[in-house]
Amino acid sequence: MIYSTIGVMAVATAIVVPAAVTHAADTPPSLPSQPYQWRNVAIVAGGFVDGLIFSPAKEGLAFARTDIGGAYRWDKPAGKWIPLNDWAGGKDGNLLGCESVGVDPIDPKRFYLALGTYTGSWSSNGAIVGTADGGRTWHRTDVPFKMGGNESGRAAGERLAVDPNRNSILFMGSRNDGLWRSADYGVTWSKVNTFPITGRTNGIGTTFVLFDRTSGRRGSPSKTLYAGVSQDGPGLYRSDDAGSTWRPVPGQPAGLMPYHGVLADDGSLTLTYGNTPGRNGMSRGAVWRLDTHTGEWQDITPPSKGGDFAGLALDPRHPRTIMVSTTERWSPGDTLFRTTDGGAHWTDLGPASVRDWSISPYMTFGDAAPKLGWWIGAMAVDPFHPGHVMYGTGATIWASDDVTEADAGKPTHWTIGASGIEETATICLISPPAGPHLISGLGDIGGFRHDDLTVSPRQGMWKPRSNNTNSLDFAENKPAVVVRVGTGGPGACSEDGGATWTAFKTAPVDRAEAGRVAMAADGSAIIWASGGSGVFVTRDRGATWSACAGLPDGRTTVIADRANAGTFYAVTGGQLYISTNGGTTFSIRRALPEKTEEVYATPGRSGDLWATAGENGLYHSPDGGATFRHVGNLPNAARLGFGKSAPGRDYPALYVTGQTATGASGVFRSDDIGVSWVRINDDAHQFGYSGQFVTGDPRIYGRVYMGSNGRGILYAAPVAAK
């Protein structure tokens, strides 16, 4: 028997509710549920789109994958992308990342996702999920190897491929454990022990699998397959017996690693190569074309400064029409090349491209116009409309409907094609009682003020810009006064609710950044705990700073009392400290409950504190931390936020994220100071990690904001009774 039976998986069937539908969650009887409708706050993309695939079986059907935000299906009538694996969360949070998408070339209702974000020793194994009904229901197979949807080489691919002649057969190239095969629509998998590469080559392993459609007939397995491996000696393998045995392809380029490959029906195999697996460090690359009938190789690399190539797409109706992208040419910037004669002549599309980024104003990143892109590894030509092309960058998708105009020397026109994709990593959120309903701190793209949750803010990112915004706070009694700190830029204050910002004139210590910041309830003082560099207070918006006395060395979290302007709290080493003189000095208050993760101060109530303690649940202190009492019956409490009180009540509604008793990601609300709780998300809407940042809206009862690590910012409200 050629295919080893070692590692054949058991199958678990999961019913996944489409993202636009909400239902009561599967929760224990002791914790009831309330239906909520979940939506994304509009930023539009914001992260690395590393895979784009058009279906050859149905016009208008396409798929995208992102490095930390899951996979998406294009909904042509709606004109937006639909998320496919928001059900991943809690104990399955590692499955939000997508390593590869397998598109069935015969049946458009069938497709597959290879899921897993990291391959570290601390991460779980991956899973391959498949659907036969367009994504209404899925089957899931847990595989005995890990996947790296957010690791190096993630824009290579596709690693998961479906036989175009017999679509029950799939092959999956893993990073660490060789090549795998399924003969039953992805339900069970076995390792191909004859495949010569079984280890972790460059940490990437197998980068793509290709079937030669012309080597078989409908109903019988395709005889010829190709597999790319991230190594330079050799990196391309071929099988002529349906994957039973493999051998290196003769004459292939040396010193470079295959990144993408596309096999056309005329027998031409086009490949992009680089000297590293990517994402960073690629400085040399090439584009080669192999005539698989004669074995002749041809170097068709476009003339380019930098010479690093990754993205690749062919017009399937005209296989000599090829598009490639550079990927890490930081100066003068990446570009796209197009040829209609198999690489004899190339056109650089960058100089004559006309771009519309109006749905994502932040895409300029402070410049007059956006760059064409960076980290371009994903590119696809619509098989039904050759003028329609998409490519993915480190921040978005660009799409054109007239790329064929370049063949006549005319400009091409591009728009942001990422509507529906939200891939930011949220670090902090605030919802002040006046001004904008939401201010967010994000990774890589700083943060935003949202006056309208349905559009990407027209002012774009904040100025002065920071890469990450690690902490935000506002003066509870003067909510227009806001402070932020982060990395890659200065700390700053705003006097108009985050519309404009003024950088701190000084920093308390050299290289002060990140950490946590807290603002007095009346805006009179700001305390900045700058990583492990100390805790400092300013009373003049950052012109001068002084060290806060009484705190030990080490990382510290600071919290402002939400009613008493002179009171601050600090958490370090499992202890709670208090200052009653505006942060000049702190003294120890008491030891915190075991496993405390965060401490929060209740809006409008002096000395009213809450502590989340993970699996130990939630604790409340009404006396400034002198005592803490365990509250409620939550199985897990990671993050907490406050919102407008329920009708007839005067205490803020509480919102908590954590895990349910079954290990799913849960979002919970209490209207009675933690006595009782309802779950307000469901198992179809988990959005990855279970400790998401959360806050309620102080002006709208029931509305909650939640920040994810890869699925952007979510907001939700109760579903109205019918």
Short description:
The chain is mostly beta strands and 722 residues long. It folds into two domains: 293 residues, Methylamine Dehydrogenase, Chain H (7 Propeller), CATH 2.130.10; 293 residues, 7 Propeller (Methylamine Dehydrogenase, Chain H), CATH 2.130.10. It is built from no helices and 57 strands.
Descriptive overview:
- The chain is mainly beta.
- It has two domains: 53-73 and 103-108 and 151-416, YVTN repeat-like/Quinoprotein amine dehydrogenase (Methylamine Dehydrogenase, Chain H, 7 Propeller), CATH 2.130.10.10; 426-718, YVTN repeat-like/Quinoprotein amine dehydrogenase (Methylamine Dehydrogenase, Chain H), CATH 2.130.10.10.
- The protein is elongated, with a radius of gyration of 27 Å.
